[in-house]
Every structure is written in C-alpha cells, then in structure tokens.
Amino acid sequence: MRASQEDFESAMNQVKLLKKDPGNEVKLRLYALYKQATEGPCNMPKPGVFDFINKAKWDAWNALGSLPKETARQNYVDLVSSLTSSSESSTQVKPGADRGQQEYENLVVTSEDGITKIMFNRPTRKNAISTQMYQEIMLALKAASKDDSTITVVTGNGDYYCSGNDLANFTDIPPGGVEEKAKQSAIMLRDFVGTFIDFPKPLVAVVNGPAVGISVTILGLFDAVYASDRATFHTPFSHLGLSPEGCASYTFPKIMGPAKSCFSFQATEMLIFGKKLTAGEACAQGLVTEVFPDSTFQKEVWTRLKAYSKLPPNSMRISKQVIRNMEKEKLHAVNAEESSVLQERWLSDECINATMNFLSKKAKL
Ligand SMILES: CCCCCCCCCC/C=C\CC(=O)SCCNC(=O)CCNC(=O)[C@H](O)C(C)(C)COP(=O)(O)OP(=O)(O)OC[C@H]1O[C@@H](n2cnc3c(N)ncnc32)[C@H](O)[C@@H]1OP(=O)(O)O
C-alpha cells in the first residue's frame, strides 16, 4: 500500500511534535523529500557557494534526481515513522557510545523490530564510499553481528543505492606516496570484503536505486537482494582501468552461469565489458532475488522483512552457516587475490587517467 495524502499530512504534523531534534542530516532529508513529494524534481536555480544553508537544501533536493513524487511521499512517511518510533520503541544505534566517540558520519544505523538497518547516507555524492565510510560500514556490521537483531539490512538514502568507491579516495595520498596508498587500500579492501564473507546473520540488501562498482560486486555475498525497478547494476571496471573485487570474479560466474558450465558469458559481459543490467535483468541472472515496483518497494520489502525477522534467530544463523561455510575458505582466497591484483591496477596509467578524467569532470560512467 502506498502512503496516501492523509498519511503524508499526518507525518508532517508528527515532525512538528518530535521531542528530539533529529539533526541536520535528517532535517535536510525531510526537506528534500517534502519538496520532491510536493513539487517533483528540483526546479530551483543552484544557490551560490557561500549561501551555505540554501546550497545544502538545494543539494539534498537535487540529489533525489527523478525520484517519483509518490515514492518521495512514501519515503517521507517512512522516515517520519522511523523517527517517531525511534524516539519511542526502537534504538538509534550509536556506535560512538561503544567506541567512546561520535556517531557515524556517513551511515544511519537503526535497530527496530529485530532488524538492524545500515543505511548509506551520503546522498549528495550518490552514496559513494569514502575511506572513512568503508571503516564505518565495517564497524556497523561488526556491531550488528553482536546485537539483538535477527536480520541485518543494507540500503541507501536518496535516489541511489550507492555509486561505488568514492573516486576521490585516489587523491588522498599519504607521506609514503602512491605505492603506500595502494598497499593500505588493498588491506582495507580485503578487510572490508572479509567482513561480508564472515557476517554470521542473514544479510539483506534493499537496493533502492542504481548500484555501481563495489556496491554491486558484494551483493554476491548477501543472503537476499531486493531491488526497486529503478535500480540498475553496473560494474564499469574496464572503463576505470580496474578489475573485479568483492569476490565477484568467483560469485558472479557461479550465480549467473548455466548449470553445466563453470563459465558464464553474462558475468564476463558485466565484469569485463561493463554491461549495465536493469533490475529485471539482474533478477533473471540470479543476482537479485526479487524486483518490486518503485511505488510500493519500501512498503512491500519492509513488510516481508518484518515477518522474516520473527523467525527463530538461531535456526536462521545456523542455516546460513550450513549454506555458506563450505565456501568461506575459497571466498577469502579469492578476496586476497582480487585485492592484490587491484593494488597493481591502482598504480596503472589506465586507472590513473580514468580517475583523473572523472575528477576533472571530463567523464562520467
Ligand atoms: C591508490 C588508491 C586506491 C584507493 C581505493 C580504495 C579502495 C577501493 C576498492 C574498490 C575499488 C573500486 C570499485 C568501484 O566501486 S568502481 C566504481 C566507481 N564509481 C564510479 O565510477 C561512479 C562515478 N560516478 C558517476 O559516473 C556519476 O556520478 C553517476 C554515479 C553515474 C551519477 O551521475 P549523476 O549525473 O546522476 O550525478 P552526479 O552529478 O554525477 O553526482 C552527484 C555528485 O556526486 C559525485 N559522485 C558520484 N559518484 C561518485 C563517486 N563514485 N566518487 C566520487 N564522487 C562521486 C559527483 O561527482 C557529483 O559531484 P559534484 O556535485 O559534481 O561535486
């Protein structure tokens, strides 16, 4: 069921009654969803760089791209509902409390109804994963593996699920130079992917929009992938002078390959030639579990997840172990090999030129 105009108006009233300030990120998100729901895609001229507040509002609204009005209305209602319930029954997970530090900067993590939701939260960068965000995702997954929840969900805020690795990560060169950066990055990548391989509970991706690069490859390590029909799946590694990561060199041919073959042309067309798949195509290839119309996506998926979260948690965890454990050693070996190949690739002219072209706005995907 879609949120009605009445639901929307009621949510607007609830926002005024919130006891706790939800913080600037959430307020910007509410503003953007409200504008999108009532006026459609951003239609204001871009404010000047020094007009900080209006620029932030414009960025947040503009980041919603062509998100349909009905979806924005539904997302607004869902967000307000998560805010009201988080101040009542749910816990807004504050890993900073565990770490004795601040909250996540690039994620919103909530725990409710037996589900821990890890939401990528850099909508103005299409949820590109910065170096800090890789660390935060690892921390959030480790916390979720130990908390009371039954299921862990990964999703994105805004019109994108995730645009993959933040290409600006390539510009942050430490004193040891670019070789040192490549070495550190290979270790970080191996740890990052390793956290998904070892994750002990059912892990579900709720792919709310386009997914690129590493956010696509790691889907092969999830237990279910639900996608909006707006989502696309793109791994433009050759365009960027790169090679596959996230164990996709192993999982994709396995997922997409015909039963009698050890090789899959669908997987190579994605991973070598960068073919972008629609949600329907990704589902036909087995990378996506089920596709939902964008207008009902959030409602249908969360209803289903809430039902699944009531199943006995130990049984689900053990079933996952039985299904996945035989593969773990192989997956860690593939992960180590892919990370080591990429360490070389990052230093190649092909990769450096492609990254510079993107960062100097000469090229997009
Ligand atoms: C030696 C050091 C190595 C360090 C490596 C660390 C470890 C990495 C491990 C994994 C390696 C790679 C795997 C990958 O993920 S490869 C895929 C990388 N992603 C991309 O190539 C996507 C690039 N983005 C785009 O092509 C487009 O932005 C888009 C996603 C198609 C969206 O286009 P749009 O027109 O709808 O929106 P746009 O205006 O471009 O985006 C809004 C702003 O967001 C910025 N942005 C978007 N995506 C990224 C990104 N991936 N990295 C950095 N910035 C991104 C975009 O530039 C816009 O910014 P601005 O408003 O113009 O300032």
From TrEMBL:
CDD domains for the chain: crotonase-like
Predominant place of localization = mitochondrion
Q: Residues in domain ACB?
A: 4-89
A Pfam family matched in the record: ECH_1
Keyword terms of this UniProt record: Acetylation, Isomerase, Mitochondrion, Peroxisome, Phosphoprotein, Transit peptide
One term of GO molecular function: delta(3)-delta(2)-enoyl-CoA isomerase activity
Q: What is one cellular component GO term in this UniProt entry?
A: peroxisomal matrix
EC number in record:
5.3.3.8
The record's subcellular location field reads: Mitochondrion; Peroxisome matrix
* Biological pathway: Lipid metabolism; fatty acid beta-oxidation
Q: What is this enzyme's catalytic activity, as reactions?
A: a (3Z)-enoyl-CoA = a 4-saturated (2E)-enoyl-CoA; (3Z)-octenoyl-CoA = (2E)-octenoyl-CoA; (2E)-tetradecenoyl-CoA = (3Z)-tetradecenoyl-CoA; (3E)-octenoyl-CoA = (2E)-octenoyl-CoA
Q: Which family does it belong to?
A: In the C-terminal section; belongs to the enoyl-CoA hydratase/isomerase family.
| Purpose | Able to isomerize both 3-cis and 3-trans double bonds into the 2-trans form in a range of enoyl-CoA species. Has a preference for 3-trans substrates.
> What protein does this entry describe?
Enoyl-CoA delta isomerase 2
Organism of this sequence: Myotis myotis (Greater mouse-eared bat)
